[in-house]
Structure formats: structure tokens, C-alpha cells
TrEMBL record:
<dbReference type="Pfam" id="PF00830">
    <property type="entry name" value="Ribosomal_L28"/>
</dbReference>
<dbReference type="GO" id="GO:0006412">
    <property type="term" value="P:translation"/>
</dbReference>
<keyword id="KW-0689">Ribosomal protein</keyword>
<feature type="region of interest" description="Disordered">
    <location>
        <begin position="1"/>
        <end position="28"/>
    </location>
</feature>
<dbReference type="InterPro" id="IPR037147">
    <property type="entry name" value="Ribosomal_bL28_sf"/>
</dbReference>
<protein>
    <recommendedName>
        <fullName>Large ribosomal subunit protein bL28</fullName>
    </recommendedName>
</protein>
<dbReference type="InterPro" id="IPR001383">
    <property type="entry name" value="Ribosomal_bL28_bact-type"/>
</dbReference>
<comment type="similarity">
    <text>Belongs to the bacterial ribosomal protein bL28 family.</text>
</comment>
<keyword id="KW-0687">Ribonucleoprotein</keyword>
<dbReference type="InterPro" id="IPR026569">
    <property type="entry name" value="Ribosomal_bL28"/>
</dbReference>
<dbReference type="GO" id="GO:0005840">
    <property type="term" value="C:ribosome"/>
</dbReference>
<dbReference type="GO" id="GO:1990904">
    <property type="term" value="C:ribonucleoprotein complex"/>
</dbReference>
<dbReference type="InterPro" id="IPR034704">
    <property type="entry name" value="Ribosomal_bL28/bL31-like_sf"/>
</dbReference>
<dbReference type="GO" id="GO:0003735">
    <property type="term" value="F:structural constituent of ribosome"/>
</dbReference>
Length: 78
């Protein structure tokens, strides 16, 4: 599963892990992306989304219908 949130668009960040001796190694900071299933009343079906924890808070605040309508307007296949 790709570490990209469908709601917020959060992607992995890149940087270095730095040891005590200050040696640097490349690493990747993945967002906390989870697969969540929501029932969307306007579509009358369940929709599975890959959302970050921030995306879950956005859905709670704005409502699943509003978020799904934005995704459909962007052209995301649900």
C-alpha cells in the first residue's frame, strides 16, 4: 500500500537518521496511513479510503459526504 493519504495528500518525507556519532543514513518518514471503510449515504454504499490520522479528523469535522464529493470532483476513483 502506498503511503499517501487520499484526503489530505500527505506523502512520505525524506531525510536522514543521525546516529550518536553524527553519521547520516537516508530514511523515509511515512505518514500514519490506514485503510478505513466509511458508509456514504449519498452513494448508498461503503467506500474504502487510505487516510492518514489527520484525514480521519478532516472527515469527522466536515463529514464523509463533503469529502467524497471533493474526491469525486478531483477525479479519484472510489
Amino acid at each position: 500500500m502506498a503511503a499517501v493519504c487520499q484526503v489530505t495528500g500527505a506523502k512520505p518525507g525524506f531525510g536522514h537518521s543521525i546516529s550518536h556519532s553524527h553519521r547520516r543514513n537516508k530514511r523515509r518518514f511515512d505518514p500514519n496511513v490506514q485503510k478505513k471503510t466509511y458508509y456514504v449515504p449519498s452513494l448508498r454504499r461503503k467506500v474504502t479510503l487510505n487516510v492518514s490520522t489527520k484525514g480521519i479528523k478532516v472527515i469527522d469535522a466536515r463529514g464523509i459526504d463533503a469529502v467524497v464529493q471533493e474526491l469525486i470532483a478531483k477525479g479519484v476513483k472510489l
